[in-house]
């Protein structure tokens, strides 16, 4: 389902950083250490798999494509040249990590988890689904909105040689390769305490890198445009609701009034989605699954994290001559700014993107 891609395609929690920072909870530390050890001990060189005629032919074909894309990432996108994604691991489950998102009942501010290396993150990661759901239940019992999302890939920011994982093999080539670019972008630049910056930066590198890779003739994206348009429209719906709720939560402190506002906003989101699905998508129901469970604030969080500043980074890339090295240097300078100044710069870049879009619309 397309909605699952929202959780799966991005590099999320950095396991080593989380483990080193988990001193406040010995049990959590041990849980992460065991999970990371299992993953690392399952690795084997992709080159060895590809060259072994006794291995699964489909796996060998997919990993051959990964090898080609990995080299392209270095040569054409100026992404890190290391041993990450030159190894493969089978963890024998559908997801490698489950992330727990949480917000207050009447706020879209994430409950952050802070660690010395990774900084503050807008989620908490677990290698075991039951542990993740137990943690979410504890937060819910304290009145928070929560969401648990399975993650098929993540980056340790270069601390370890991150593997391509079996959880990624069910994806299309475009999704797989785009995720590879996304993961490596996290290794290229990561700013502590700013999840939206990091995920939007990596999402832009993923999208732009995939477009360039397709333009080189290495992959065929034909047929992807329609799904990309649906994804963009669905995300726009979610972000519209986020903005609506954020404004409403600031306007009142009455919990009864806020509860009614919240319910109305989610009902409007469902109605707008049904109209989009039935009128514009000719009944395409790929996002129906998102509405199968009750909506809450936490379920909206990942959308804003991954998409918020993508137009800003697109503008930054264009304004630096579409040169990757210059773009990365400029993005790194943004990352050095104080949070308020960084936000202001990103808002200005996004405004220029909107103005340019408006100028070309008849």
Structure description:
The structure is a single chain. It is built from 14 helices and 8 strands. The chain has 362 residues and is mainly alpha-helical. It has 2 domains: 2-215, no CATH class; 224-360, no CATH class. Strands 1-2-8 form a 3-stranded mixed β-sheet. A 3-stranded antiparallel β-sheet has the order 6-3-7. α7 (173-188) crosses α8 (195-215), α8 (195-215) packs across α11 and α9 (224-251) packs across α11 (297-307). The longest helix is centred in the middle third of the chain and has 28 residues, at 224-251. The radius of gyration is 20 Å and the shape is globular. The two termini are 34 Å apart.
List the helices and strands and how they pair.
Blueprint: H1 2-8, H2 15-20, H3 26-41, E1 44-45, H4 46-50, H5 57-75, E2 87-89, E3 97-103, E4 113-115, E5 119-121, E6 124-126, H6 129-141, E7 145-151, E8 164-165, H7 173-188, H8 195-215, H9 224-251, H10 255-280, H11 297-307, H12 310-319, H13 324-336, H14 339-360
Parallel strand pairs: 2-8
Antiparallel strand pairs: 1-2, 3-6, 3-7, 4-5
Helix pairs in contact: 5-7, 7-8, 8-11, 8-12, 9-10, 9-11, 12-13, 12-14
Any idea how many domains?
A: 2
Which sheet architecture does the biggest sheet show? 3 strands, mixed
Structural class: mainly alpha
Approximate helicity band: 55-70%
SSE run: HHHEHHEEEEEHEEHHHHHHHH
Beta strands, count? 8
What ranges have pLDDT less than 50 throughout 5 or more consecutive residues?
1-24
Q: What is the averaged pLDDT score?
A: 89
Approximate shape: globular
Summary tags:
mainly alpha, 362 residues, disordered N terminus
């Amino acid at each position: 389902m397309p909605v699952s891609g929202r959780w799966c395609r991005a590099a999320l929690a950095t396991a080593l950083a989380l483990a080193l920072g988990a001193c406040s909870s010995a049990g959590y530390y041990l849980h992460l250490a065991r999970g990371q050890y299992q993953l690392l001990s399952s690795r084997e060189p992709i080159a060895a798999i590809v060259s072994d005629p006794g291995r699964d032919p489909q796996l060998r074909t997919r990993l051959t494509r990964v090898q080609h894309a990995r080299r392209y990432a270095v040569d054409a996108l100026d992404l890190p040249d290391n041993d990450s994604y030159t190894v493969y691991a089978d963890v024998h489950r559908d997801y490698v990590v489950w992330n727990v998102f949480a917000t207050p009942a009447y706020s879209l501010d994430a409950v952050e988890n802070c660690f010395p290396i990774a900084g503050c993150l807008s989620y908490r990661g677990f290698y075991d689904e039951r542990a993740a759901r137990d943690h979410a239940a504890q937060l819910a019992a304290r009145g928070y909105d929560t969401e648990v999302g399975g993650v098929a890939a993540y980056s340790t920011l270069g601390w370890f040689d991150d593997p391509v994982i079996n959880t990624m093999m069910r994806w299309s080539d475009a999704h797989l390769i785009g995720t590879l670019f996304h993961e490596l972008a996290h290794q290229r630049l990561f700013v502590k305490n700013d999840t939206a910056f990091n995920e939007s930066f990596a999402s832009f590198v993923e999208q732009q890198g995939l477009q360039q890779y397709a333009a080189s003739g290495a992959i065929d994206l034909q047929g992807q445009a329609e799904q990309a348009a649906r994804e963009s429209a669905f995300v726009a719906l979610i972000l519209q609701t986020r903005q609506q709720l954020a404004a409403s939560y600031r306007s009142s402190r009455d919990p009864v009034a806020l509860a009614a506002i919240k319910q109305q906003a989610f009902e409007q989101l469902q109605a707008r989605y049904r109209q989009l699905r039935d009128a514009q998508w000719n009944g395409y129901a790929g996002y129906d699954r998102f509405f199968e469970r009750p909506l809450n604030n936490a379920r909206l969080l990942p959308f804003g994290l991954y998409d918020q500043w993508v137009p800003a980074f697109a503008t930054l890339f264009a304004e630096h001559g579409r040169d990757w090295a210059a773009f990365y240097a400029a993005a790194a300078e943004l990352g050095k700014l104080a949070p308020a100044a960084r936000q202001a710069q990103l808002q200005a870049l996004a405004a220029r993107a909107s103005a340019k879009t408006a100028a070309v619309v008849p």
